[in-house]
Amino acid sequence: MEQSYFASEVAVVIGISNSTVRKYSIALEEQGYKFHRGISNSRVFYDKDILMLKRIMKIMSRKNMTLKQAIDLAVSSVDDEGVTTPVMVEEQPDEQGVTDKERMKQLERMYANLAHQFQEQQRMLFEREAKRDELLTSAIREMQETKRLIAVTQEDKRKPKKKWYEFWK
Questions:
Q1: CA 12, 15, 20, 22 torsion-angle sign
Q2: CB 169 within 8 A of CB 162
Q3: What is the pLDDT of residues 15-67, one digit of tens each?
Q4: pLDDT of residue 167
Q5: CA distance 44 to 25
Q6: Residue 56 in contact with residue 62, Cβ under 8 Å?
Q7: Nearest to 59 by CA among 31, 86, 35, 79
Q8: Average pLDDT value over all residues in the chain
Q9: pLDDT of residue 86
Q10: Hey, is 57 helix, strand or coil?
């Protein structure tokens, strides 16, 4: 038995509001898409319905289409048995003449460059930290040595001085 969902659950799964799920569902029904109905005539969503809604959102975001255009494209790709057929959409360049594939390659190069810069910064920070620790340790040792010398000289001042004729004692 296939898992069924309420509209509010679908909204959470997809990451949109309940009203958007309702809006998309109504637009789908206007194009002939059938939803199962539950108690009080509410829509019951199945996995195929969630995939349809996701597909519409994907088409709208990638192809800059209106809701109606995206629904037409998504519904036309589903046959009578509910099986989705692949839709081949030509990749069209944007205003600057860059296609999605080229943009992805640019983003991958930028990501690799940023990752390299991040590693270099991490290495530099590690080196600075090691140098700082070394200087701090050196300063602490110098302070300890100074304190030891001060203590020795103060101890010498406290000892009674021998008279000149007591040098052999």
A1: negative
A2: yes
A3: 899 999 999 999 999 888 888 888 888 899 998 899 999 988 888 888 788 88
A4: 67
A5: 11
A6: no
A7: 86
A8: 83
A9: 47
A10: helix
Q: Tokens 């989705």 map to which residue? A: 84
Distance CA 82, CA 34 (A): 10
Tell me whether residue 53 is exposed, middle or buried, using C-beta atoms within 10 angstroms of its C-beta: 0 to 12, 13 to 18, 19 or more.
Answer: buried
Q: Which two tokens stand for residue 96?
A: 């600057």
How many CA atoms within 13 Å lie on the side-chain side of 136? Answer: 6
Percent of the chain at pLDDT > 90 equals 33
Q: What is the pTM of this model?
A: 0.47
CA distance 128 to 87: 55
Residue 119 makes CB contacts below 8 A (sequence gap 6+) with none
Which amino acid would we find at residue 28? L
